[in-house]
UniProtKB/TrEMBL annotation, chain A:
Annotated function: Involved in beta-(1-->2)glucan export. Transmembrane domains (TMD) form a pore in the inner membrane and the ATP-binding domain (NBD) is responsible for energy generation.
Organism: Tardiphaga robiniae
Keywords of this entry: ATP-binding, Nucleotide-binding, Transport
Entry-linked PROSITE patterns: ABC_TRANSPORTER_2 (PS50893)
UniProt keyword ATP-binding present: yes
Single GO term (MF): ATP hydrolysis activity
PANTHER family for the chain: AMINO ACID ABC TRANSPORTER ATP-BINDING PROTEIN, CONSERVED COMPONENT OF ABC TRANSPORTER FOR NATURAL AMINO ACIDS-RELATED
Source species, domain of life: Bacteria
Protein name, entry field: High-affinity branched-chain amino acid ABC transporter ATP-binding protein LivG
ATP-binding is among the record's keywords: yes
UniProtKB/TrEMBL annotation, chain B:
Superkingdom as given in the UniProt entry: Bacteria
Lineage: Bacteria, Pseudomonadati, Pseudomonadota, Alphaproteobacteria, Hyphomicrobiales
Segments traversing the membrane: 9-26, 32-51, 58-76, 82-101, 113-131, 159-178, 211-229, 249-271, 283-305
Matches recorded under InterPro entries: ABC_transp_permease, LivM-like
Record PANTHER family: HIGH-AFFINITY BRANCHED-CHAIN AMINO ACID TRANSPORT PROTEIN BRAE, HIGH-AFFINITY BRANCHED-CHAIN AMINO ACID TRANSPORT SYSTEM PERMEASE
Main location: membrane
Database matches in Pfam families: BPD_transp_2 (PF02653)
Protein known as: Branched-chain amino acid ABC transporter permease
Species of the source: Tardiphaga robiniae
């Protein structure tokens, strides 16, 4: 079942087309990766899909409904979560509080009940904390629940962001370079985590530079170059495509790689 | 006692004890008056701290709401025949409404732009109060009818000490309640990363507006209490300098720390009283002390002290 459908999306910044005619669709439980050299427009594409930028053209559908140019918080309520390439952690909150914020949409939020902290608020808070702890456990951060997020290591912050995004119980999860800056052990952990998430029926859209990770776990791959789609296919198809190598290495580099 | 300050009811208990015990050391009614001033200012600062320290939005015009509260209890009973307590509630309502209407467009601004916009609002309120002299007495101010409750007249500095002390306790309780609630977490989240807050489904504009309205109501209540206590209001209470004073209390005491706002208010109210012995150097010294403490205690007095205490135990 197709859960996210991106159709002929384009966005320009002052006449420069950062994304042009990109389209793809992702099914529930699928891992869909977007690759491309630096500046290909992968993060920009994520920002358009998650509502941070407004698409200048094209159409985005979430679970069959048109959500083009919806605000990020509205998209979140419709089941779209994401992480960021440059960490966007709530630094002054503890790890568990970060994940509890991720439960915002699952919580009833009434200003007056909160100001007087009615018994129902305390009860709900306990539930939220328990749920958040389970998500921390999922990413292996249970022992750091009460650590201030600002004191966590880079790799732990990456996983904390994933836990926060998962806490919203999304249908589609956009992961922007989850393994960037992680060592091989951490990368492997993230690799397993992504597979577990997809196994639950969540559609995972992945932007990642670690080709080993991408080729290993992706169901389908879309390669971008300068904002345009280059090829979409299975890992095998994309790996075999000379245009992809060329986009990464240039014509000369691709020839060298082919010879090697 | 220090361990108690980590729990919501611990803080309230310590504060209640301080309020109850302090008068035993007061030699004259002058001390009751200064302490009441601290409680009222602390109350306003706690509200502003919810906006600044929790939600991370600045307001340089907050005395505007303080002024609205103060003039509500002055104008209501004198010109409109409304009882003081009703006037106080009307002042809160008006402040909340204004905060809502003004906040909607200006809270979309960030950083310096928001600072200037709120500053403009404060200046506007002060201007209206100064020029509408038929209602407000203009630059000279006006007297305020005493608060009467079921035939009992609230007067005398010791009476007001207990009223403002009780008010401060209530205000502290509400502010502390917000931690560990979805609203409180949403405030802190949008402070740390607005973009991350938005993608987790937080309607950032709505929560900024809520924090702004809460802070406005706190300021308005404080303004009403001060006016009723003093029996007099003047436009300075709505003025720019008072706005800055409130911001200074919040930052000096510690952004995001409820206890910090009380300490910040105490320092800023009591220091000038103490420094009067230096006569003409009073303001110079006050400025110097604030500069030095901001250099050495950038996070504010209370967060710095608590870090120091925890560090020593570890």
């Amino acid at each position: 079942m197709t859960i996210l459908k991106v159709d002929d999306i384009g966005i320009s910044f002052g006449g420069l087309k950062a994304i042009d005619g990109v389209g793809f669709s992702v099914e529930a439980g699928q891992i869909f990766s977007i690759i491309g050299p630096n500046g290909a427009g992968k993060t920009t594409l994520f920002n358009v899909i998650s509502g941070i930028y407004e698409a200048s053209e094209g159409r985005i559908e979430l679970a069959g409904q048109d959500v083009t140019r919806f605000a990020p918080d509205v998209l979140a309520a419709r089941g779209l979560s994401r992480t960021f390439q440059n960490l966007q952690i709530f630094q002054r909150m503890t790890a568990i509080e970060n994940v509890m914020v991720g439960r915002h949409l699952q919580e009833k939020c009434n200003l007056f009940a909160d100001l007087f902290r009615l018994p129902s608020v305390t009860r709900q808070n306990k539930e939220t904390r328990a749920a958040a702890l389970a998500f921390l456990d999922e990413v292996g951060l249970r022992d750091h629940a009460d650590t201030p997020a600002g004191a966590l290591s880079y790799g732990a912050c990456k996983r904390l962001e994933i836990a926060r995004a998962l806490a919203a119980e999304p249908r589609v999860l956009l992961l922007d370079e989850p393994a960037a800056g992680c060592n091989s052990v951490e990368t492997e952990e993230i690799d397993r985590l992504i597979c577990r998430v997809a196994a639950k029926g969540i559609a995972v859209v992945l932007v990642e530079h670690d080709m080993k990770l991408v080729m290993k776990i992706s169901d389908r791959i879309l390669a971008l170059e300068r904002g345009r789609p280059l090829i979409e296919g299975s890992p095998g198809e994309v790996r075999a495509n000379p245009a992809v190598l060329e986009a990464y290495l240039g014509k000369h580099g691709a020839r060298e790689a082919a010879r090697a | 006692m220090l361990a108690a300050l980590r729990h919501r009811y611990g803080i309230l208990l310590v504060l209640a004890i301080v309020i109850a015990v302090l008068p035993l050391a007061f030699p004259s009614s002058y001390y009751f008056r200064v302490a009441s001033l601290v409680w009222v200012s602390a109350f306003a600062a706690i509200g502003l701290n919810i906006l600044m320290g929790k939600a991370g939005q600045v307001s340089l015009g907050h005395a505007g709401f303080f002024g609205i509260g103060a003039y509500a209890v002055a104008i209501g009973p004198t010109h409109l025949g409304v009882p003081s307590l009703v006037a106080l509630l009307l002042g809160c309502l008006l402040s909340a409404l204004l905060a809502f209407l003004v906040g909607r467009p200006i809270l979309r601004l960030k950083g310096h732009y928001l600072a200037i916009a709120t500053l403009g609002f404060g200046v506007l309120v002060a201007l209206v109060i100064t020029t509408e002299s038929r209602w407000t007495g203009g630059p000279d101010g006006m007297s305020v009818m005493k608060l009467t409750l079921f035939g009992w007249r609230a007067s005398g500095s010791d009476t007001w000490y207990w009223i403002t002390g009780g008010l401060l306790l209530a205000g502290t309780w509400i502010a502390l309640n917000l931690d560990e609630t979805p609203t409180g977490r949403a405030f802190r989240a949008l402070h740390d990363s607005e973009i991350a807050a938005r993608v987790t489904g937080i309607n950032v504009n709505r929560f900024k507006l809520q924090a702004f309205v809460i802070a406005a109501v706190y300021a308005s209540l404080a303004g009403s209490a001060l006016a009723l206590m003093n029996g007099f209001v003047n436009p300075d209470q709505a003025g720019f300098l008072h706005s800055i004073e409130l911001v200074t209390m919040v930052v000096l005491g510690g952004l995001g720390s409820v206890l910090g706002s009380i300490v910040g208010a105490a320092v800023l109210i009591m220091l000038p009283q103490v420094l009067t012995v230096f006569q003409e150097y009073e303001n110079l010294l006050l400025g110097a002390i604030i500069i030095v403490s901001m250099i050495f205690m950038r996070e504010g007095i209370v967060p710095m002290l608590s870090k120091f205490m925890m560090g020593r135990r570890a």
